[in-house]
Amino acid sequence: MSRQLQTDRRVKDHIEGKLKTTQHLEVGLLLGAVGQGAKETLLQLVPTPTEEGQQPVVTLTSASTQGASSKSKSSKAQTGIKVDNASLNLHASLVINLLPGGLALIGAYFLGPAAANDQAFLELSRLKLNPDAGAFWTAVLCIDSSSGKAIYQAASASARPRQSPVPCELKYGPMLENLQSVTCRYPLQSQLPVHCNGKQMISQIKRLVAEESNRISSGLVFLGRECCQNSNKGLHELVPAASQTSLEAILLSSPSCCATAGTTASEESAGCLAVQGALHGLAFCHKRASLPEVANCLKADLRKTLAYRVALAAACAAPGEELEAGSTSQCQPAFTALSDAHASRADLMLPSRVTLPYQEPVLFCDYLQPGEETTAAAERIQWALPCAQADPALVAASESPAQTIMSTVRPASKLSGKRSSTDALLGLYLRWVIAAVATVFLAIALTIYFLSTQPSSIR
Questions:
Q1: Pairing of strands 271-286, 179-194
Q2: How far apart are CA 26 and CA 170, in angstroms?
Q3: Are 133 and 91 in contact (CB under 8 A)?
Q4: More confident residue, 402 or 441
Q5: Among 308, 301, 305, 313, residue whose Cα is nearest residue 372
Q6: CA 42 to CA 172: how far, in whole Å?
Q7: H/E element holding 192?
Q8: Residue 385 contacts residue 98 (beta carbons within 8 Å)
Q9: 3-66+75-173 maps to which CATH number?
Q10: Strands 247-252, 179-194: parallel, antiparallel or unpaired by DSSP?
Q11: Can you tell me the mean pLDDT for 278-299?
């Protein structure tokens, strides 16, 4: 039994180009589209690059007998391969964060001699390219470097049973042209109490991201007058024929409240961690996708970009998400302001999102730290996704660099004693009142004394 895999025609160009060269050995990632119902759509083969001076990601080894029985009836000789899983996993982790909503890694592929297919399935299917999706096995596509024929093994959510590889027909077509871009500007306004201990601050940052992600998940997405979650329409019904104009969506979520849970009477807050500004959401969905699917893709993109940007900011001051108390890192003052006895506020600009064209209408994304040049984004995208256009002049900022800010604010009480800022203001006001009353009484007493000491004739 064979199966069909909807594939963009550019994949055919990639395979045919490889077959014409002497370099017939390649391993990489399968870039696909999600949210199109039950259909699997393959958009591009993304080869895993080899670092300069390092061994190739995949190499052929001597004949392998793993998994083969001595009584096997098959007379075909098997070829072994060795895959650098660490490089493949690193490549996957980078690519995942460069993809907008609606696009995802759906598996891995091997392009090489058919005799190495069995070993390729064994090596590549163990990769966990998307742990959040709960898939234990990764989908694997093996392409014969001689004939171009493909064999496919679907992903599985459990270790066993595992479906056997089956012949796969790559059904080529203009898949990218059928994608429609949907954008959204999502305002951020959240805050949580923080403490002087660095590890507690990291915990509160994660909690802040989690609560904001929950707000995004529970929000309602509107395209025009249509509420996507409650609509049975398809995206094509809102898009004019042959139009590539991006659709602007609106996400309405519940208002954010200043959370105070977790701070007891004996555990006084050292300040407030706030994030404010706006996120730029971007998703590419098939024009036949339902509106609820569009809403899910857009929300997933907003959650991912928020978490990744905060993680990038935290990594500068706290590598590995571990922040030592009393850290003196200068690159992220918002994480160290609470350890400074004289600091009352510190602002941190989160990395801004930029885009680089792939093929119309699809864009890839990256993030620039404050002061970083667009050439850095172009180089990162080009390294991880060689199919993208490499011209730095094409890098476009989708939002203002200073649009999203994370701040730490210390109450006035922490700057001079243990009293709160309200108590300090009240004490100052009372001192003014007492001084004024004392001045009035002193004036009255002096007047009475002056009159009592004058001669009676004057009185």
A1: antiparallel
A2: 18
A3: no
A4: 441
A5: 313
A6: 9
A7: strand 179-194
A8: yes
A9: 3.40.140.10
A10: parallel
A11: 91
Residue type, 421: S
Please name the amino acid found at residue 124. L
Half-sphere exposure of 409 (CA within 13 A, CB side): 13
Ranges of each domain in the chain:
3-66+75-173, 178-350+404-414
How many residues in the chain? 459
What count of other Cβ atoms lies within 10 Å of the Cβ of residue 162? 14
CA distance 55 to 237: 51
First to last CA, the chain: 124
Query: pLDDT tens digits for 63-98?
Result: 544 444 444 444 455 678 888 888 888 898 889 999
Backbone torsions φ then ψ of 232, nearest 5 degrees: -105, 15
**CB 270: neighbour CB atoms within 10 A?**
21
Q: pTM for the full model?
A: 0.77
User: Would you say 350 and 313 are in contact if contact means Cβ atoms under 8 Å apart?
Assistant: yes
Q: For residue 56, give both structure tokens.
A: 């190739």
Q: Is 114 exposed, middle or buried (0-12, 13-18, 19+ CB in 10 A)?
A: middle
pLDDT bracket for residue 43 (50, 70, 90): very high
Q: Burial of 279 by CB count in 10 Å (0-12 exposed, 13-18 middle, 19+ buried)?
A: buried
Q: How many angstroms separate the CA atoms of 101 and 296, rounded? A: 9
Q: Tell me how many degrees the CA angle 114-120-122 measures, rounded to the nearest 5.
A: 135
How many Cα atoms within 13 Å fall on the side-chain side of residue 239?
25
Alpha helices in 341-386 (DSSP H): 374-384
Distance CA 303, CA 305 (A): 6
d(CA 99, CA 284): 10
**Residue located via tokens 């510190």:** 346
* DSSP 3-state of 346: strand
Relative orientation angle of helices 291-317 and 198-218, to the nearest 10 degrees = 170
Q: From CA 181, how far away is CA 242, in angstroms rounded?
A: 13
pLDDT at 262 over 70: no
**Residue written as tokens 């007379």?**
75
Token pair, residue 212, equals 């904001």
